Every structure is written in structure tokens, then in C-alpha cells.
Amino acid sequence: MQIYLPIAEMSVNVFLILGMGGAVGFLSGLFGVGGGFLMTPLLIFIGVPPAVAVGTEANQIVASSVSGVLAHWRRGNVDVKMGLILLLGGLAGSGAGVVLFKILRALGQIDLAISLSYVVFLGIVGGLMFIESVNAMFRSRRSRGSPAKPQERHRGWIHRLPLKMRFRKSKLYISAILPFAVGVLVGVLAAIMGVGGGFVMVPAMIYLLGMPTQVVVGTSLFQIIFVTANTTFLQATMNQTVDVVLAILLLAGAVIGAQIGARAGAKLKGEQLRVLLALMVLVVCGKLLMGMVMTPDELYALGGGAKH
Amino acid sequence: MTSTPTMSFSRRIAFSLTAALVWCAMAGAAASPVAAQTPAPVQEQQPIVADLSKHLVAITTGFAGTDVLLFGATDGPGDIILVVRGPQLGTVVRRKERAAGIIWANKDAVTFENAPAFYHVATSRPLEDIAPPGLLQRHQIGAGNLDLTVEGLDEGESRTEFREALVRLKTDKGLYGYEPGAVAMLANRLFRAELRFPANVPTGSYLVEVYLVRDGQVVSAEITPLVISKVGIGADVFQFAHEQSALYGIAAILIAVAAGWLAGVAFRKS
Q1: CA nearest B238: which of A62, A9, A305, A10?
Q2: The predicted structure's pLDDT at residue A267
Q3: Chain B contact for A160, CB < 8 A?
Q4: Nearest-CA distance B180 → chain A (Å)
């Protein structure tokens, strides 16, 4: 069954989109990522114009994140205080990011910016995370059951920053500047890549802030809701690239997938979750890198300059 | 009281003959309806006449492309060239080059101001068999003969490459095409062709040109319009998105939040 998307100006198979939404929603509930870094390239692959894919995906992530947060809230895994500070940073970052997106689009370099950002961040994050979580798994197996804490070295300068606050759910006492900075970074990435930024947020929270993995997932989703809602609003008003028909199809599958994913995630240990996420991130990164470095079949591309 | 004048014999015959002639003329006029209804002298038959099965393609929610039938008649043997031209939209073509020696990125870009968004040619026989290149150039028949004015490039070779790229990319998307033999002719009089519009067809006013070609000359032509526009919910959404973007954005967010909440509530029993 085909449906016509009024903003993307193409028609898609309804069941394909529902399936894609469900699969990516599952990953979102499982890992605390928005899923955008998988879905946006997938949408582009099926023919949706990249700018519309980015704007619409942000819209879908709002829905799956709300669904995921509710699932994690019921298990007491959302640190609202931390989330709000991350959020403030995220709003600042995504606002700047949408403006930057518009400039890059006008310069015709938006494709390159999106691809480079993906490859660089996915590579760094995936690689580091993979190394750490594999070590943690070996450590916990060797010491037979004692839980391994990911951050064991305490970097001095981080703990000397001002504005320290107590974050009860995460059992932390750190400067508020840290979550704010992480939030800004994630916000910029969210706007440019059409992602919630979870794949940077989750490792940053685990390794830079030292939060326990289970709380990280729920809190990350909480922050993502607001950042992607902001991105959706800005993309709709500044670029008119949000296709609400496509978004509704995607989120129909995604919100259900997120619930199932959250349930599955609760059954896994922290290290296992991290290894899986790291592997997934590395695979996506590798594929993107190959796409950028290998000689493309078609050197020419139609730009989005057509005016009605 | 006057006495009945007696007509002379010759006068009586003249009168009868005239009456008979008038009567014949009237009978003849009544018998041939064309002559009775067309007071003007009989017109020459038009060499070609053509029409479309529909003049409005409405893009509704379930739109996945559509077919429009073109049909018509000619006054004798000849070849038909059919050209469908979409609205002229400024189109940008970008070319990738190796940046920093490793990564492929967009570098040069060219804007084609006059490129039609949609351009299909269908003929009863291959173009080179029915018309000389000069005629094709004059009427801009064939993608190679389109007036694709290029802004932003000077070298001749690059310009050709960009033009070819534009045609190739549009053809891959199904927006440009050339189908020789797609116009079917019956008994050298009737002709028909199926015009295929893919799902990603751009909206706007289209012109469908039909040329009758004999001995390498255009004998006659017909132009008929076609409008493609979004209709119904899709059109409303598009308009809403462009005219009231802020409200549209907020609505999109609220829908997403509501859907997420619904799923969260529905799965409450874990």
C-alpha cells in the first residue's frame, strides 16, 4: 500500500516505513539513543530528500523518546535534574545547529558536513566505547561477579570546576558546567545530523560524567525529547522540511518498538549493553566511511535549488 | 371585379419551371443537413486533432504515479511527435571532487535556469527517421536540443558534461525520457500514447505538444494543457507547512508527544 508524502513529494510503502520505525524504536528504547543516526541514512537510502529526512526524523524521535522515557520512569531510571541541565545546553546547541544547517545547505556542503560528522563522531565514540566495555566484561568475568565501574580514574580538573550540584538518581556530585557543555555539543549534532544525539550523549554521560548505565538511558531519552522537539520546530519554520505524514508513519512503529526495547534493555547488564551499542555504532561508521572514500558511481547530483 | 387575367402560355411555363427549380433546391437543401446547418462555405479538415484523457492530475494521498492517455486523429499518413514539457524550475547540478585527496565532496555547482522539471518525448518512429536535426532544434524536441542556459561555468567541456549529467540524473528519476515507437498509429489516421507520470512528478502547468510530421516537415501541431497539483489532505498539509510553519511545527511536536504517551500508557502493565 503506497502513500504520498506531501513535503517529500514522493510515495512510499506504508508497511516498509512502519517496519523501519519499529526496528529503530526498539534500538532507541534499548540503548537510550534517538535512533536517528540509523534512520536518517535509511530514509535517504529509500529516496527521501536528505533535508526532509533530517527534519522529519527529529519529529519522529520526539515520539519514541517520550515512549521510552515513560518506560524507564516506571523503573526509577530518570535523573530529571541532570536531564534539565543537559537540556539547557541542548537547546542552545540545537538552535545554533539549525542556523549552521541552513548556511551549509545554501553552500551545497550539507551532504559533506552530515557525512563527516557522522563518521568522526561515530568512529570516536564507537571505538572508545567498544574498548572500554570489552575490558569491563573481561574484568567482571575474571573477578567473578563484582560489578565493574567504567570510570575508575578521576581526572583532577573535572572535579575542580565550579557550580557543583548534587544529582541523587545518578549518585553524583559534580559541576553543572559539565552536563551543560555536553548538552551544547549534542544539540549542535542533533540539528545538523537529524539525530537526538544519544550516541554522543550516552557515552559522554557514562565516561565524562560517571553516571550508572541504567540511569543514563532514561535520562538521555528525557533530554532528547526537548532537543529534538526544538529541532523539529526550527526545521519546520526555517526550512519547511518536516513531513508530518512520514513522521506519523515512522512514529507509529517507533513508539511501540521503544517500549519493547526498554523492556529488553532492563534484562541486560551494563557492559553487555555498551558492547552492543559500540558494535552497532562502529558498523554504521564503517559503512559511512567507505561511502565517502570509495569513488562514487555518480559524480553528479541534483541540488535542492528548485523553486516552486 | 376584375376578370381573371389569362396568363400567356410562355409565362405560365416560365413560372412553373421557376417553381419546380425552387422546389428542387429546397428538397435538396432539406436532404443534405450539412449544407442546411453550415451557412459558410465548407472548411478544410484540420490535419491533426488531439486530446488528453484528463487535463488535471490530482495528487491525492494514495498517489503512486499515474497514466494519462493522449489520443487524436490525422487527415492522412504521417508521423507523430509528442512532447510533454513541465514547468521551468531552476535546477542545480553539483559535481563531487576529491577534497584533501581522500574524501569525495561537492565542489562545482551549476544552475540551469530554464530546465523543465519534466520532459518526455514519444514518437511513432525514431526521431532520426522522421525529422532532420534542424527541425528538432527549432522546436526544441529531444533532450539534447533543450535550451539549457548555464549560469556559473565558462569552459565548454565542463558545460557539456553538466548538461549531460542533468539529463542523465533526471532520466534516472523518471522525469526525462524518450520513447520512440510509443505513439501507436491505426490505419494512418488514429493515434494514441500513454503518458507515464512517476510519483515524484513536480506540480505545476504542463504543455503537451503534438506534431504531425510529413517528409521532414511539420505539417501541423496541437498544444493542449495539463495541470498537476496536489489535492486534498496532501495539499492542505503542504500549504499548512509553508504558510503557517510555526503552527505546523508545534502541531507536529504535539502529535509526536501524544503518540509516545499513548504507547507508554498502553504498555503500562510490564
Answers
A1: A9
A2: 85
A3: no
A4: 26
CB A222 within 8 A of CB B260: no
Q: What does the pLDDT read at residue B2?
A: 47
Q: Is residue B84 predicted with pLDDT exceeding 90?
A: yes
Number of other CB atoms surrounding residue A264 within 10 Å: 13
Q: Does the CB of A80 have a partner CB in chain B at under 8 Å? A: no
- CB-CB under 8 Å, B265 with A7: no
A23-36 mean pLDDT: 81
In whole angstroms, give the CA distance from residue A20 to residue A101. Answer: 25
Q: Is A170 on the interface with B (CB under 8 A)?
A: no
Could you tell me the three cell numbers for A52? Answer: 526532509
> What are residue B108's DSSP bridge partners?
B95
Specify the pTM. Answer: 0.71
Least confident of A21-30, A201-210, B189-198: A201-210
Does B96 contact A299 at a Cβ distance shorter than 8 Å? yes
Beta partners for residue B184, in sequence order: B192
Q: Say how far residue B148 (Cα) sits from the centre of its chain.
A: 20
**Distance between B168 CA and the closest CA of chain A, angstroms:** 9
- Of residues B95, B109, B263, nearest to A299 (C-beta): B95
Question: Which pLDDT tens digit goes with each residue over B2-60?
Answer: 444 555 677 777 676 766 666 666 655 555 544 445 554 444 578 899 999 999 999 88
- CA of B108 to nearest chain A CA: how many angstroms apart? 9
Identity of residue B185: M
DSSP bridge pairs for B121: B83, B178
Q: Which three cell numbers stand for residue A82?
A: 541532570
Residues A195, A191: Cα–Cα separation, whole Å: 7
The predicted pLDDT at position B162 comes to 85
- A149-156: list long-range contacts, CB under 8 Å, 24+ apart: A150/A206, A150/A207, A150/A210, A150/A213, A150/A270, A150/A274, A151/A206, A151/A207, A151/A210
Nearest to B60 by CA among B264, B268, B237: B237
Rounded Cα distance between A221 and A234, Å, is: 20
pLDDT digits (tens, 9 = 90+) for A117-152: 778 877 887 888 888 888 888 887 776 544 444 444
First CA to last CA distance, chain B: 125
Q: How many CB atoms lie within 10 A of CB B135?
A: 18
C-alpha cell at A195: 539525530
Residue A1 C-alpha, separation from nearest chain B C-alpha, in angstroms: 8
Which segments within B13-137 are labelled E, that is strand?
48-52, 56-59, 66-74, 79-85, 91-99, 103-112, 119-123
| ipTM of the complex model | 0.77
A-B contacts (CB, under 8 Å): 207
| Residue in A6, A234, A251 nearest the CB of B256 | A251
Q: Are strands B176-180 and B119-123 parallel, antiparallel or unpaired?
A: parallel
